[in-house]
Amino acid sequence: RDQISAMFGNGLMTDAEVNREALDAAFAEMAGKAAATDGFPAYLAGPRKTVDGRYYFIPQAFTVEGELNDRSIGEAVKRKAIAQEQWQRWFASIPARKSVILFDTCDSGTLTGDEAETQQLERTAANDRLAQATGRSILTASGGSEEAIEGYRGHGLFTYQVLDAINVADGDASGTVEVTELAAYVYAQVSELSLKIFKRRQVPQMKIVANYPLTRQARILPEHQSP
């Protein structure tokens, strides 16, 4: 993926702005504005990698020196990417109790066989630790051995379904979309449509720590259509 973007509440950062220093400043600003009673949805899109069971987000200007192989990439990720411990510190600085983080990211490259299974377990463990350490619910676009599909109606498949859920996932007709309603809709739609349309399965990974109304039902995308 060539571009990285991150959205924090009403703040938007795009492309070259998304680096460690800019993210640090954005979180500091949000921490100063947010109250415990506020909601704090955070959305990030871009490449990620799990190394030794730890989550890393790949920022702009990331490079790998020397020959490209698993070892050199892993070492570069550990030195230059943004590790889960930093995300934990940033998210913990936000006092808002109603918080959900959505990652439209995928691991760079794929593995097969037993290695893929190990990577999936590592990714799940990394997501669980991040959720437990920050108290935030986390939704990610795909499993550890899967690429997050792009090119679905002008969006990534995961992002499109998140936006669509805000309009159609209000299962109890309360006028609001709850965290579990959004998560269930996105999981079902991405799992089904990835296989039906793109002929390869993408399965979102989720860790829900609390349920609450996330947003009012609203139409963000054009008129809802069948896939």
Short descriptors:
six-stranded mixed sheet; alpha+beta; 227 residues; globular; 39% helix; three-stranded antiparallel sheet; 20% strand
Could you describe the 3D structure shown?
The protein is an alpha+beta fold and 227 residues long. The protein has helices spanning 20-33, 70-80, 84-92, 113-134, 157-168, 179-198, and strands spanning 5-8, 11-14, 39-45, 48-51, 54-57, 82-83, 98-104, 137-140, 176-178, 205-207, 213-216. The strands form 3 sheets. Strands 2-1-3-7-8-10 form a 6-stranded mixed sheet, with helices on both faces. A 3-stranded antiparallel sheet has the order 4-5-6, with helices on both faces. Helix 3 runs parallel beside helix 4 and helix 5 (157-168) packs across helix 6 (179-198). The protein starts with a strand and ends in an 11-residue tail after the last strand.
Structural topology:
Layout (H helix, E strand, L loop, with lengths): L4 E4 L2 E4 L5 H14 L5 E7 L2 E4 L2 E4 L12 H11 L1 E2 H9 L5 E7 L8 H22 L2 E4 L16 H12 L7 E3 H20 L6 E3 L5 E4 L11
Parallel strand pairs: 3-7, 7-8
Antiparallel strand pairs: 1-2, 1-3, 4-5, 5-6, 8-10, 9-11
Helix pairs in contact: 3-4, 5-6
Structural class from helices and strands?
Answer: alpha+beta
Which consecutive residue ranges, at least 5 long each, have pLDDT under 50?
108-118
Cα gyration radius (Å): 17 Å
Care to count the β-strands?
11
Number of helices: 6
Strand content: 15-25%
Structure in a nutshell:
The chain contains six helices and eleven strands.
